[in-house]
Specification:
By secondary structure, this protein is an alpha+beta fold. It contains five helices and 24 strands. The strands form seven sheets. It has a nine-stranded mixed beta sheet. A four-stranded mixed beta sheet has the order 4-18-17-20, with no helix packed on it. Strands 7-9-10 form a three-stranded antiparallel beta sheet, with no helix packed on it. The longest helix is centred in the middle third of the chain and has 21 residues. It starts with a strand and ends in a 13-residue tail after the last strand.
Length: 335
């Protein structure tokens, strides 16, 4: 007797019957928007209604290209240890609140109201779709030639394949992130979770993991015995439509979520295919971050802090693990 189960693939315009394990649903999606149409939406925000389906159980998702199935994502529920997640929240929560202004399209189209507070919005130069090319400082009145975009609570830990500007022309091409420098003990406490994420990556997407791991081990700028050099940490951040850049093209993205309090939404999705994933605490998503993706708005209760300001009474801390493409140029260098 067969132990396999007949299930239905999702293809939006048609259905197909395939054989798959009882516990894992195989989903085939089709492009609802052409490549040209979706590219024009870069920097736009998408909502729940833009997705035909939100996946909330173990699933493997593919799209067809010239008759070949291309992996879009693999989603697994409740596969990460709770104690490792709690450690991550404890050690990353405060640092994740810092705001940065260099997240490009992921932070949405340029909004002068979302620029850093030290910038005079009435005196910016070279306004582009996602950034300004320079600004006048409110504090000094001086002109600063620097690219700046909308602020967002998005930070990185681990290692980075760009020199430290503060060290001048002779700065090494790779470096530790500020988090690693300032909080080595906290970083060490998060490594168990990063190992568990890497384990899921290796299990679910072994060929991609093998290539990425082999590349990662060619330098000292790698997180423990994993395929990752860098982790992006987002604090209650709703990303606009974008493709990730700077990470290994032959690799794959790895997303997990750590939570406090209650909230709704925050679905991670691919609008071009009309599919999204409800990634919650303990879940793991391997996803093709080189396809157009974003996440929906995050809704929950708000409270007033000690200053009387309204702030979220919940935390959705998303961690994206990857390998920086240019880290290889640091082969032989010490961390």
């Amino acid at each position: 007797m067969s132990t396999k189960k007949d299930i239905t693939n999702v293809s939006h315009n048609k259905t197909k019957k395939v054989f798959k394990s009882k516990k894992i649903e195989k989903v085939i999606v089709e492009k609802l928007l052409s490549d040209e149409e979706i590219e024009k939406r870069e920097g736009d925000f998408f909502s729940r209604k833009d997705f035909k389906r939100i996946l909330k159980r173990d699933s493997d998702v593919y799209y067809l290209q010239n008759g070949k199935e291309i992996l879009l994502g693999k989603f697994r529920k409740n596969v990460l240890p709770k104690e490792e997640i709690l450690l991550a929240i404890e050690n990353l929560k405060e640092s994740s609140k810092r705001e940065h202004d260099n997240r490009g399209a992921a932070a949405g189209k340029l909004d002068l109201k979302k620029l850093p507070i030290w910038i005079d919005p009435e005196r910016v130069k070279n306004k582009q779709k996602f950034i300004i090319g320079g600004y006048y400082s409110k504090k000094t009145g001086k002109y600063i030639k620097q690219k700046v975009g909308n602020v967002s609570k998005s930070n990185i830990i681990g290692y980075y394949d760009k020199p430290d500007r503060n060290l001048g022309e002779n700065a090494p091409p790779c470096r530790q992130t500020q988090f690693n420098k300032l909080h080595p003990d906290k970083f060490e406490s998060v490594i168990p979770l990063i190992r568990s994420i890497d384990k899921q990556f290796k299990k679910l997407v072994p060929l991609k993991h093998k290539k990425q791991y082999k590349r990662a081990k060619k330098t000292n700028f790698v997180i423990d015995d994993t395929a990752f050099s860098t982790i992006t940490i987002n604090n209650n951040w709703r990303t606009a439509l974008h493709k990730d850049s700077g990470d290994l093209k032959e690799g794959f993205g790895n997303l997990v979520v750590c939570e406090e309090g209650k909230y709704k939404g925050g679905y991670t999705g691919f609008p071009q295919f009309g599919i999204a994933f409800d990634v919650r605490q303990g879940d793991f998503l391997a996803m093709d971050v080189h396809e157009w993706h974003c996440n929906t708005d995050i809704k929950g209760k708000r409270k007033r802090n000690e200053k009387g300001e309204l702030e979220n009474d919940f935390l959705r801390l998303s961690l994206v693990c990857y390998l920086r493409e240019k880290m290889l140029r640091c082969k032989g260098l010490k961390v």
